[in-house]
Amino acid sequence: MRRTFAAELAAIRAGPLYRRLPANDGGGGVEVEFDGRRVVRFAANDYLGLAGSELLVGAAAAALAAHGVGSGAARLIGGTRAPHRRLEEQLAEFKGAAAALTFASGYAAAIGAVGALVGRGDVIIMDKLCHASLVDGARLSGATIRVFPHQHLDKLARLLAWSERQCPTGRVMVITESVFSMDGDRAPLREIVGLKDRHGAVLLVDEAHAVGVIGPHGRGLADELGVAGAVDVAMGTLSKALGAAGGYLCGSGELIELLVNRARSFIYTTAPPAACAAAAGAAIAHLQTAAGEACRRRLWENIRHLAAVIPSSARPAAAGESAIFPLPVGDETAATACSRALFERGFYVPAIRYPTVARGAARLRVTVSAAHSPAQIAALGEALAAVLGPHPASHPDPSRQSSGE
Ligand SMILES: *Cc1c(COP(=O)(O)O)cnc(C)c1O
C-alpha cells in the first residue's frame, strides 16, 4: 500500500519534531498576540523595529498609491520601476559596490546567485552551518560541494588547496555567512578573504543578520573588518533589520549583469511589489541618519543588557556578538517544553530543532531588537532563569552540526 498524507503526518506528530504555525495577531511590534495570548516576542529578525514603523509604512503607502500592489511581470519583461531602480542604486552606494540586484526574497537571492555563478565542473566550499538557502543553491547548481566544519580555517585551507589540484580551470566559490543565523557568532572574514585570494577562489558572504546591525551605519561585518572590497558576491536580505521584504546581491557591474542574464530566481519570477522596494529604500536611508544611528545604538545597548541577564549556565559562547542568542538545551522535546514554559510566563521564544540545527542540538533562539524596553529584557532574564534553572536541561553535543533554516 502506498503511504497516505495522513499516515506521514501522524508519524511526524508522534515525534519531537512536529511543527505548527502559531497564529500571530499583533501588528508589527514586540508585543504580539500569539495563539490568542498577549506575549512579548523575542523571536523576530526585525532588529531595529523598523517593520511596523511610520517611516517604512509611510514609504510603502506612498509607493502603493503611485505604483499599485502587484508589479504585473518579471523585470526582464515588464521593465524596472523607479522604486526598484532607486533601491538598487542606494544598495550599491551603501555597500560600496559598483552595482546591486534585488530579488523577491533572500532565499531567492541565494539560490539564484549560486546557481548563476557555479555549475558542473566548478567547486563550492562552504561552512557547515550555512543557511538552507545557500545549501539549496549549492545543491541545485550541480557544482561539486565540499563542506568545512563551522569556522574551521585549517580545513578550509586544505579544501582550497585540494580544489586547485582538482579543479584548476573551473571556478571555486567559498560561501559563508557573516553572522550565523542559528548560532549568532561571527565568521573570521579577514582570514577567509586571505585564503580565498591565495587560491584564486571567489567569495560569497551572506550578511542577512549583520546588515543594519554591525559595521559603520550597519553596512555589515565585512565593512567592519575592512574587507568589504574583497567580497566578490555580497548577499543580504531586506527582510530582517531593514524591516521590508526581499533579498539582494552587490558586487561588480559584470557580476550583476551576469546575474540578470543567468539567475533563474530573478528571471522567472514577478518583480516584488514597488512598495517593498520603497520601504527597504527608506530603511537604508534611515540607517545613514543620526536617528538611524541612535536606533542601532539602542539595539546594542539591548544586546549588552540581554547578554548580562541570561543565566550564566545557558549563556552561549558567542553571546553579545550579534542580536541572536542561541540558548543550548539539546533534547528536542525539552527545548519545546522550555519554549512552552516561557510562553506561559508571557514570552515568545521559539525552540529551534532538527533539521534547522543538528539532532540533539535543539536550542531556544532569543533575538533582541531596538524596540524592546529594558524592563522587557530584565523580565525575560528572570523568566529564563526560572525555566532553564541554574543548569540547562542537557548539554548539546558540539560535534553535531547541521545547516540553518
Ligand atoms: C533569513 C535568511 C535568508 C533568507 O532571507 P529571506 O529574505 O527571509 O528569504 C538567507 N540567508 C540567511 C543567513 C538568513 O538568515
Task: Write structural notes for this entry.
With 405 residues, the chain is of the alpha/beta class. It contains 15 helices and 13 strands. Strands 3-9-8-7-6-4-5 form a seven-stranded mixed β-sheet, sandwiched between helices. Strands 1-2-11 form a three-stranded mixed β-sheet. α8 (189-198) links the parallel β6 (172-177) and β7. α4 (82-95) packs parallel to α12 and α5 crosses α10 (253-262). The two termini are 33 Å apart. Residues 392-405 have low confidence and may be disordered. Bound molecules: pyridoxal-5'-phosphate (PLP). Residues 105-107, 110, 131, 133, 177, 181, 206, 208-209, 237, 239, 247 line the site of pyridoxal-5'-phosphate (PLP).
Concise structural overview:
This protein is α/β, with parallel strands linked by helices and 405 residues long. It has helices at residues 5-14, 54-67, 75-78, 82-95, 106-117, 132-141, 153-166, 189-198, 221-224, 253-262, 264-267, 274-287, 290-309, 332-344, 374-388; strands at 31-34, 37-41, 99-103, 123-127, 144-148, 172-177, 202-206, 233-237, 247-251, 324-330, 347-348, 351-352, 362-367.
Topology summary:
Layout: H1 5-14, E1 31-34, E2 37-41, H2 54-67, H3 75-78, H4 82-95, E3 99-103, H5 106-117, E4 123-127, H6 132-141, E5 144-148, H7 153-166, E6 172-177, H8 189-198, E7 202-206, H9 221-224, E8 233-237, E9 247-251, H10 253-262, H11 264-267, H12 274-287, H13 290-309, E10 324-330, H14 332-344, E11 347-348, E12 351-352, E13 362-367, H15 374-388
Parallel strand pairs: 2-11, 4-5, 4-6, 6-7, 7-8
Antiparallel strand pairs: 1-2, 3-9, 8-9, 10-13, 12-13
Helix pairs in contact: 2-12, 4-12, 5-6, 5-10, 7-8, 13-15
Pyridoxal-5'-phosphate binds at residues 105-107, 110, 131, 133, 177, 181, 206, 208-209, 237, 239, 247.
